[in-house]
Design a protein that fits this description.
The chain is an all-alpha fold. It has one domain (3-139). The protein contains seven helices and no strands. The longest helix has 25 residues, at 115-139. The two termini are 20 Å apart.
Length: 142
C-alpha cells in the first residue's frame, strides 16, 4: 500500500490545490464575506479590525488544502480509482466523514460565538472543493 505514495500524480495534486485555493477565495471573499463576519462575531467591529491580514491567512489554507489533497491522491491510488464518478464518491465520503465533522468540531469552541452557523457556512466549501479536487485527481494525467 505504501507504493501508492510513489504513484501519486503530482501535477494533478498541484492543479487540485490551486483549484481549491481559488474556490476558497471566491467563496469566502466574494460569496459569503458578510456572513463569515457574522458567524465569527466580527460584524460589529470597526472595518480595520474586521479585515484579516498576514501570510498565515493565505499560506495556511493553501498548505492545509495541499495536505488534504495529497491524502485524497493517496487514497485514489491505493484504491485504484480511475473514473470521475468513483473519485467524486471518495470526495463525498471524505468530505462528509471527515471534513464536515471536523469543521463543526473546531467551531464548538468558546471563541466561536455561532458554532452551528459557522459549520453550516463552511461546510459547502469544504465538501464541494474536496469533491472537485478528487475529480481533478482522477482525471488529470501525469
Amino acid at each position: 500500500m505504501l507504493s501508492a505514495l510513489f504513484e501519486i500524480h503530482w501535477f494533478a495534486v498541484a492543479a487540485a490545490t490551486i483549484a481549491s485555493f481559488i474556490m476558497g477565495g471566491l467563496y469566502f471573499m466574494v460569496l459569503v464575506p458578510r456572513q463569515y463576519l457574522y458567524v465569527t462575531g466580527r460584524e460589529n467591529l470597526p472595518k480595520e479590525q474586521q479585515a484579516v491580514s498576514g501570510p498565515i491567512f493565505m499560506v495556511g489554507p493553501l498548505v492545509c488544502s495541499l495536505i488534504t489533497i495529497i491524502a485524497n491522491a493517496y487514497l485514489i491510488q491505493a484504491l485504484g480509482l480511475s473514473t470521475a464518478t468513483d473519485a467524486a464518491m471518495l470526495g463525498l465520503i471524505v468530505g462528509v466523514g471527515f471534513l464536515v465533522p471536523m469543521t463543526f468540531n473546531i467551531a464548538i469552541n468558546p471563541l466561536f460565538p455561532r458554532p452551528i452557523q459557522y459549520g453550516l457556512l463552511n461546510t459547502p466549501y469544504f465538501l464541494v472543493s474536496n469533491i472537485v479536487a478528487c475529480i481533478l485527481l482522477a482525471l488529470i494525467p501525469f
